[in-house]
């Protein structure tokens, strides 16, 4: 009972040691518990002990085994395959060797055995590249008591872990303990038991330890280093523009209902296939205006006219928007208006020959009867040039006051203009002007000259 208390005390020391170190690797802690066997025979000594490794596996004659839980240890992973552990063990010594072949086992009165040891181990798991078989070696030291006699020991160990799961395995180990004092026998101690690894933190419970988990507080998948893929589209949420809706990788995880290559979130027409350039909306007539904004969706037209073609009301090839005469066919060169056919010099000469024969009552603006055929001839010529504009000029001789002559010339010019308008000539085409006696074309000193100066002239207005 006293020895058991010492073992429990050693275990408390071990656990106390383990709680002073922070966890820094997956399952950094390991606890082993099982049975140990102490062999005092094959240690290179004289009788009753034997040479090194002599009858090393003679369990029946030389191994002292306490048939109960008799060893426990805790180890902490350090780095690069190294770990440090502390363990405690108890046993009962009844056999220490042999004194002859006839007496293969030298039995002694039952002696107590207990030990506390510290060991630095090196694992060959990476070398053998196995997740199941893990050989290791260890060196360390400790303190061992046999029947209340204690001394320090230098220990060397060789062992093997066989892992049934990531955390649970079978451990077998043999250790040579070399005493620093002659009064404590050198001996071998063998161990077999179960080892449990623990201490790895997995906050989100997704099976990926926090140190390797890029999203340690959110359950995720191994292929994404522990980060989630909520919609299951193979794109982790952090890189998924639509983490709650499955979509292809080329659209960063967003769906495309109409299959037009524009993600629904960016598609103004998500249920109808369209063009990327129009934010996923269709353009049936291919004019670059989305059908929803196109007032003529089946007829191509410019955006400036809401997708409809510009009209050409007069059919002259000049669109109404550019046609200065949209209701009258014209030429492109004349901005959609008819080409202006101006009267020739010969026509103007004819007009003025007629105009000079217009006769008025003396001192008045009323026409003499013989003048009407002349006025009709002038009207007919002007109708032949509907796009030309004219100025009707009135002139007098110098008889009478200048002011009177000015007013008379104006009235006579307007009289001619009024006649032409009343006979179908557009008023906008005609301007009347009187110049009195200012521009004579003959000598006012003669009767013939004064007759020539009393005249009406028609001039082409640009």
Overall description:
Residues about 1-25 have low confidence and may be disordered. This protein has helices at about 1-20, 60, 125-130, 345-355, 370-385, 400-420, 445-455; strands at about 30-40, 65, 70-80, 80-95, 105-125, 135-145, 150-165, 170-180, 185-200, 390-395, 430-435, 455-460. Strand 7 and strand 8 (about 170-180) form a beta hairpin. The termini are far apart. The protein has about 450 residues and is α+β, with helices and mostly antiparallel strands. It folds into three domains: about 1-200, Porin (Beta Barrel); about 310-335, no CATH class; about 345-460, 60s Ribosomal Protein L30, Chain: A (2-Layer Sandwich), CATH 3.30.1330. The longest helix has 21 residues, at about 400-420. The relative contact order is 0.06.
Task: Describe the structure concisely.
The protein has seven helices and twelve strands. The chain is of the alpha+beta class.
Mass-distribution shape: rod-shaped
Query: Which second-level CATH architecture of the largest domain applies?
Result: Beta Barrel
Question: What is the CATH C-level name of the largest domain?
Answer: Mainly Beta
Uncertain spans:
1-24
Strand order of the largest sheet: 1-3-4-5-6-7-8-9
CATH topology of the largest domain: Porin
| Helical content (DSSP H or I, runs of 4+) | 10-25%
Radius of gyration: 62 Å
Structural class: alpha+beta
Give the N-to-C terminal Cα separation. Answer: 137 Å
Q: Major β-sheet, in short?
A: 8 strands, antiparallel, barrel
Strand coverage percent: 25-35%
Number of helices: 7
Structural domain count: 3
Order of helices and strands: HEHEEEEHEEEEHHEHEHE
Main location: membrane
Subcellular location: Cell outer membrane
GO molecular function: calcium ion binding; porin activity
Protein name: OmpA family protein
């Amino acid at each position: 009972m006293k020895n058991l208390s010492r073992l429990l005390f050693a275990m408390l020391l071990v656990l106390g040691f383990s709680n002073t170190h922070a966890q820094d690797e997956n399952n950094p802690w390991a606890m082993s518990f099982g049975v140990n066997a102490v062999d005092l025979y094959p240690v290179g000594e004289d009788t009753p002990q034997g040479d090194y490794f002599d009858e090393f596996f003679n369990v029946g004659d030389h191994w002292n085994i306490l048939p109960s839980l008799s060893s426990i240890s805790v180890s902490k992973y350090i780095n690069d395959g190294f770990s440090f552990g502390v363990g405690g063990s108890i046993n009962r010594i009844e056999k220490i060797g042999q004194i002859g072949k006839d007496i293969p086992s030298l039995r002694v009165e039952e002696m107590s055995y207990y030990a506390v040891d510290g060991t630095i181990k090196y694992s060959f798991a990476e070398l053998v590249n196995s997740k199941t078989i893990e050989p290791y070696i260890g060196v360390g030291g400790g303190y061992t008591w046999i029947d209340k006699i204690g001394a320090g020991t230098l220990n060397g160990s060789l062992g093997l872990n066989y892992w049934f799961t990531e955390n649970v395995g079978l451990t077998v180990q043999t250790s040579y303990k070399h005493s620093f004092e002659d009064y404590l026998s050198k001996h071998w101690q063998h161990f077999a038991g179960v080892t449990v690894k623990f201490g790895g933190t997995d906050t989100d419970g997704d099976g990926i330890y926090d140190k390797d988990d890029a999203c340690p507080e959110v359950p995720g998948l191994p292929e994404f280093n522990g980060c989630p893929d909520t919609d299951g589209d193979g794109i982790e949420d952090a890189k998924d523009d639509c983490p709650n809706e499955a979509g292809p990788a080329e659209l960063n995880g967003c769906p495309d209902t109409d299959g037009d290559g524009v993600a629904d979130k960016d598609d103004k027409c998500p249920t109808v296939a369209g063009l990327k350039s129009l934010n996923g909306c269709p353009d049936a007539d291919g004019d670059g205006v989305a059908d929803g904004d196109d007032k003529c969706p089946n007829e191509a037209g410019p955006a400036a006219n809401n997708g409809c073609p510009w009209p050409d009301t007069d059919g002259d090839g000049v669109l109404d928007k550019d046609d200065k005469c949209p209701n009258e066919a014209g030429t492109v060169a004349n901005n959609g208006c008819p080409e202006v056919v101006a009267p020739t010099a010969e026509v103007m000469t004819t007009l003025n020959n007629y105009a000079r024969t217009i006769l008025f009552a003396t001192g008045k603006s009323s026409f003499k009867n013989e003048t009407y055929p002349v006025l009709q001839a002038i009207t007919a010529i002007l109708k032949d040039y509907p796009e030309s504009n004219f100025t009707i000029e009135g002139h007098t001789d110098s008889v009478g006051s200048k002011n009177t002559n000015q007013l008379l010339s104006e009235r006579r010019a307007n009289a001619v203009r009024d006649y032409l308008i009343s006979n179908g000539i557009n008023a906008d085409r005609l301007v009347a002007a009187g110049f009195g006696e200012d521009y004579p074309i003959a000598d006012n000193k003669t009767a013939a000259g004064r007759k020539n100066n009393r005249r009406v002239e028609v001039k082409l207005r640009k």
